[in-house]
Fold DNA-directed RNA polymerase RpoA/D/Rpb3-type domain-containing protein.
Amino acid sequence: MPNLRAPQVEIVDLREDFVEFVLSNTDTSVANALRRVMIAEVPTMAIDLVTIHDNSSVLQDEFLSHRLGLIPLAADPGVQYEYNYDCDCEDYCDKCSAVFTLDVSWDKKALGRPEHMQDQPVHVTSADLVSSDPRLRAVHFAPSDQTNSDISQDAGIIIAKLAKGQRMQLTAVAKKGIAKEHAKWSPVAVATYKFEPVIEINEEKEALLTPEQKAEFVEICPAKVYGRDEKSGTIFVEHRDMCMWRRTGRYLRRRWWSRLLR
């Protein structure tokens, strides 16, 4: 029986915006509790107050404020802000908040454009947000179908579009919070878990197979879940996680190979 007080974590994949790990020596209650904490109880910074000075775009002030709140903000390691309700200030200050300013007009952004694009709308993006604290900044993402080499990361997340003669000017205050209070403070887009697959090979039936049949069993699997020891000829599970692939189960159900699995 697993020791619930001593779970173990093994990192499988770690990137700037993605992490995958194996949680063992515990049960689903701990896994689900960890998932819920990651979603709703990890403090982050998000835009909370917005003052609109000028907005002649087609986007209403309320929608604009909502979009600004959902733009992810990243802070340098070690940067600590206090919760606004724990701070001694009356409204907000440098200890608990950071101020972003945005001032974009079509006239300024359209300068230097080719002649055939002179009347086209311009984009207002997260890259146009100027932070009062250089340690806190808006996160910019490239489209998911393009690599970093295809598009500059400085392009920013599109907030709105401005037509000729339009302008957007505002001040936004970012504060510290958790997603239990509002979803804009959630640090993750998705946090899920799945059970580790259990695959057992029937050794008695495996012993009845010829070397050619064993080789066929290993090679026919489209996900390459299984491997075969060259010396002993024994079939073993090489890529356990790949068995979740839909085509693997379909192949096994339609052929005699399913008898090898318990």
